[in-house]
Each structure stands twice: as structure tokens, then as C-alpha cells.
Amino acid sequence: MRFITILLFNFCISFASILSLNDAFHVDSKKYDSSIIINVKLGQDIYLYANKIKLYINDKDITSFLNLPPSVEENNEKVYFKELNLALPNLLLEHYAKKNLNQIKFEFQGCSKQGLCYNPQIWYLDLTHKNNQFSISKPYKQNKKSKENFNSQSEEGIIANFLATNNLFWILLSFFGYGILLSLTPCILPMIPILSSLLIAKSGNKNSKKHSFFLSFVYVFFMSLAYAIAGIIASFLGASVQGILQKPSVLIIFALIFILFALAMFDILRFEVPLKFQNFIHKKSGNKKGIIGIAIMGFLSALIVGPCVAAPLAGALIYIANTKDALLGGSALFIMSFGMGIPLLFIGLGLGFLKPGVWMEKVKVFFGFIMFAMTIWILSRIIATHYVLMAFGILGIFFSVFMGIFEKAFNAFAKIKKSILILVLSYSICLFLGGLFGSKDFLNPLNFSAKEKNQALNYHFINNLDQINQEIKNNQALMLDFTASWCENCKLLDELTFSDKRVIDQVKKYKLIKVDVSQNNNEDIKIMKQFNVFGPPVLIFFENGKEQLKITGFINADDLLKKLKS
Predict the structure, then answer these.
(1) How confident is the model over 426-448, as a mean pLDDT?
(2) Domain of life, per the record (predicted)?
(3) pLDDT of residue 95
(4) What is the C-alpha separation between 211 and 486, in angstroms, rounded?
(5) Measuring CA to CA, which residue among 115, 112, 118, 109 is closest to residue 237?
């Protein structure tokens, strides 16, 4: 556990240069004889966007009447450094502050020169008008007039409100239920072969149900911890942590890790530490050998192998971003992720029934090929599809040979196994030939005349925030589709939902804009911040410039049609 503590400490240190919200923005107010002053002191290397500053009195926008101080340019944007003072003259207040107790809403957004932007900030101030005198309260974050601080039209908004208004027990119980439901989606599938392979490699002669279940629990625990930490960081900084971890360089490193694990399954590589350290670990951990490796893989798998954003996750992120209650939001994320990992715990129980024997060598080889397959799957996010087909074809051919396709079959079981291997070999050859000649269809690799799907929908690819805002303003009906090359649920949306003729007919009235956030660069982060998107897939429907519907995560054709017609 000391190693894990050091690992988490280093993880936190890597973000130490990014200031917390309290250090980045200090909002205060002062009353003078002729005016009210709202002051924002900015931390080192922090700046505010001039066009994001908004001020409302009783929901009336008075921004255009403000006498803003001179700004400077940063990345072609007008910004403010160090400090911003907004003066509200009494004459202006007398015109708009009609009540004895008025509310001022102050909005702004800031970024760090380190390259990350903070969530849009909303502060409230109570303005009292009595005996022709104005007085102002200290700024506060929670709108006292309403608990409905989140967009209740979206699923994540409803979930964020639930977090804000319910007690801890029901929140955690509900999020555990959300996690179990998410375990039935493709989010968790890639982790099943990873955990199975690790258990086979780590268990050795200790194939007891108790030991395998314990190792599965460690994997799921650290998977959940990764989701919670990444979620909290994303909420505070407004960056897609999973998107950062989908960079080609990161994926290649992780693919190499899988290759090393695969080679270890074939006994080509052996990960052994010096005997002195082995004896020390044995004394300290007893029968818990291998826990550190399982924990690290669980932590990394959650971030790189299974990036999956759904409404419960987005709702928790919105709640944390608006309330800064990282303890409750992080606990909800952890419990939800643990619910997602419940099927993985049963894998440990299942492998506990395996008894050591010569045949276990075949099992190790089988999972070695699974590790190679996971390597190709990870790299499929950054290489062309026809190369992926060729790679899987080659892997299938080697798999058939290593598993004994040319061995003699003396009994019924051996004949069944050999028949299955012949089918695998045949399909693998088709995959290789299909990829070689440019096919991209896994189900029909020899159909070289197949056309790209979804040609019926006319998408426009835009990755510029100003242009997107202009399109929303100029079009009566518009749909934003946030996607990424590494997002499996995005591919399912295109292949299953948007290939349905009923959906195609329904969305043709919208101008369709795809926002590809695969690169997770500064512009992508700005766009995601603007629309409160923490990760793809997200669909946002606008009518007459106003958001009407927001859907986070995969949705099937029937459910999408119901939401569009409601």
C-alpha cells in the first residue's frame, strides 16, 4: 500500500501547478458613497475572458452598461490579468434595482496560462435598497432563491439536482444502482479479458475462490478510485481527463504494457525482482503477492481502456463543478464505478474453480492472445481500420496454430475444439485478405464494394467555438454531436442509432454538426466548457438558438425518437 500511496501522491503532484478555484479567483464586494464595487483578484498566470463577463440585476442583463477597464490580448482574445474591478454607480442601480432586496448575478470564466480552463463561475450578491441607500452582501456561490441551479431539462441536470437535494444514503444507493445498470453497457466489456488474464497470471497455484475474488476486488476498487479522481479533476478544471489519456503517445505506451503482459503469458518474459526483495515482499504481503500490479492495471484500465461517459457520471460532474462539494460528488462517482465493476467480481469467483494442471498452460496461452487482441483494439483508435483487420487476421492465424489446430483429435472434445479452430482460422484469413484489399467491415470483410454507413446524414465538422455559436444563432434547428475517435459509444451511435431510417427522417430538419474532440486541445476544451460536456458522446439539440434537449451517453433509436417527439 505504501507504493500505491506514493503513486497517488505523484499523480496529485502532476497537477500541482494548476491553482485551485479559491487560489485562482477571489471575489469580493465593497460599498462606496456613489457606487458599489465588485472586485475579482486573480492568481498567478490566471486571466479572465472579457466576453465571458456578465452581470445581471434581478435577471436583467446590464453588462452593456458597465464601464469595463482596458483589456490585453492573449491568444487573440481580450483578457484581464491580476485584478478586475466592476463599478456599479448608484444611478445605474436606482434604475434596475426596483425592490428592497435585489439579487446580482455575476458570471465569468477564466483560464490558466498552463493551458487548462476553469468551469464558468457564477456568483451571487444580495443588494439591499433602503432609505435611498444601497448596501451589498458578500458574494456567495449558491443561489438562495432556488435549489434548481442545474439544467433540469437534461438527464444529467436532473441527476445533479438529485445530488443537491437528497440525503447521503439515498444518493449513494441510487448511484450504486446507476453503476449496475452501466455494467450492462459496453463500457465494462474491455476490462473482462484484462482482469481474467491478470488473475490467471497472478494466481499461480493459489486458485482458491477467496484469493481470486480478493484480486478482483482490488482491481475493481482501484478502477473506481480512478473514475472518482478523474471525475473530480475534470469537474474542477473543465478538462476531459480521459481525452488527455487518449493521446497517441499514451495509447502506444499502454499498448506496449499489454504486449509485455502477453509475452509473460507465453513465458517469453519473466517479471522478477531480485531474490532479496522477493523475500521481503513475501514476508510483508504473505498470500497477497501481485496486488500492486492488479491495482495499477485497474487504475489505468478505467482511464484508458474504458472511457465511458453517461448521464449519471455527467450529472455528478456538473454537481461537483457548481457546488465544489468534491467529497459528496467523488463518493457518488466511486460508488457508481464500483457498481459498474460488480460483474468483474464474479469473474474472480468463476476462476476460483480452476484447478492447477498441465491444461492450465493452454489457458495461459489463450489469455496471452487476448492480451495481444487488446493491444490491437487500443491501437485501433489511432490506425486505419483496414490495418486493424489485417492485424486481427494475423493474430487469429497464430491463435489457431498455438491452440492446436494441427494436433490429432482422438476424442469428441478434441474434434469439437479442432472444428472451432478451423472456423477461427477461416475467418482470420478472410480478415487478413479483406484488410489487405482495403475492406473496413469486420462482419463482411470480403465485401470490397461496401460503402460507408450514414451517408444519408449530412454532417458538418466544426471545431471552432465562435463558428459553432454563429451556427446556433443562424439556424432554426441544429444538433451538436460531440464525438471522438476513441469513443466506443460514439461508434455505436453512428452504427445503430443514426443508421435507423426513422431517426434519419426525424433529424433531417436539423443542421447536423459533429464536434470531434479526439485531440483534446485548447479549442476542444473551450467548446466542451461552453456546453458543459465532460466527454463524448453527447447530443445537444437547439431550436431558435435555445437548447431544447441534451443526451449524454449512448441512446438507442426508439428512446431518441421518444425524446425528440416529447
Answers:
(1) 85
(2) Bacteria
(3) 80
(4) 34
(5) 118
DSSP letter string, 149-192: -S-TTSHHHHHHHHHHHS-HHHHHHHHHHHHHHHTTSGGGTTHH
Over residues 80-105, the mean pLDDT reads 84
DSSP 3-state of 474: helix
Q: Is 429 helix (H, G, I), strand (E, B) or coil?
A: helix
Q: Are 230 and 330 in contact (CB under 8 A)?
A: no
Report yes or no: 313 and 333 within 8 Å, Cβ to Cβ.
yes
Residues 503-531: what's their mean pLDDT?
Answer: 85
How far is Cα 372 from Cα 374, in angstroms, rounded to an integer?
Answer: 5
- Contact present, 341 and 188 (Cβ < 8 Å): yes
CB contact at 8 A, 25 and 141: no
Contact 105, 56 (CB under 8 A): yes
Q: Is the pLDDT of residue 332 over 50?
A: yes
Q: How far is CA 167 from CA 161, 163, 173, 326, in A?
A: 12, 8, 10, 16
pTM of the model as a whole: 0.49
432: exposed, middle or buried (C-beta count within 10 Å: 0-12, 13-18, 19+)? buried
Candidate from 64-78, 351-365, 541-555 with smallest mean pLDDT: 351-365
* Contact by Cβ (8 Å): 316, 164: no
By DSSP bridging, strand 477-483 and strand 511-516 are: parallel
In whole angstroms, what is the distance from residue 389 CA to residue 384 CA?
9
* Least confident range of 171-185, 229-243, 267-281, 303-317: 267-281
pLDDT in tens, 58-72: 888 888 888 888 889
| Alpha-carbon gap, residue 441 to 444, rounded angstroms | 5
Q: Please say whether the beta carbons of 70 and 38 come within 8 A.
A: no
Whether the pLDDT of residue 247 is over 70: the answer is no
* Alpha carbons 490 and 381: distance in angstroms, whole number: 12
Report CA Rg, the chain.
28
Nearest CA among 381, 347, 394, 384 for reference residue 254: 381
| Through-space distance between the first and last CA atoms of the chain, rounded to whole angstroms | 52
Count the Cβ atoms, other than its own, within 10 Å of residue 203.
Answer: 21
In the predicted structure, residue 269 carries a pLDDT above the cut 70: no
pLDDT tier at 355 (50, 70, 90 boundaries)? low
423: helix, coil or strand? helix
Helices marked H in 238-359 — which ranges?
241-244, 248-265, 275-285, 291-300, 311-323, 326-340, 342-351
Give the residue with greater pLDDT, 33 vs 153: 33
The backbone torsions φ and ψ at residue 12, rounded to the nearest 5 degrees and listed phi first, read -70, -40
pLDDT higher than threshold 70 for residue 40? yes
Q: Sign of the CA dihedral 429, 435, 440, 445?
A: negative
The closest alpha carbon to 392, from 364, 372, 410, belongs to 372
Residue 201 neighbours by CB distance under 10 Å: 19
User: For residue 465, what are the contacts with CB-CB under 8 A and spacing of at least 6?
Assistant: 523, 526, 527, 530
Place of cell 478555484: 21
Whole-angstrom distance, CA of residue 422 vs CA of residue 406: 10
